[in-house]
Amino acid sequence: FEMPREQGPKERPIDGVYTHGLFLEGCKWDWDLWTLSESEAKVLFVSVPLIWMKPVRQVHLRSFLSYKCPLYKVSTRKGVLSTTGHSTNFVMSISLYS
Length: 98
Hints:
This protein is mainly β. It has no helices and 8 strands. A hairpin with a 4-residue loop joins β3 and β4 (35-38). 1% of the residues are buried.
């Protein structure tokens, strides 16, 4: 995953897909430091920057200080536990700079 500082790309990515419209719950995105930070008082949901999901081979994954943020289909996170132990609303984890 990459989070380009250019949040309004003019063209499609060469590889992968840009994803927008996601929200964080219980924390916020610091647009100046470009990392996760503590949420503002009484603010539960905040938007996430554009994320570039790029397919890469496991051996080429970059490691960085990150939080493995779970991504759910709906904000309630309710659902039946599947055989993997995750809610059926769980989609994947996204590594966010922390």
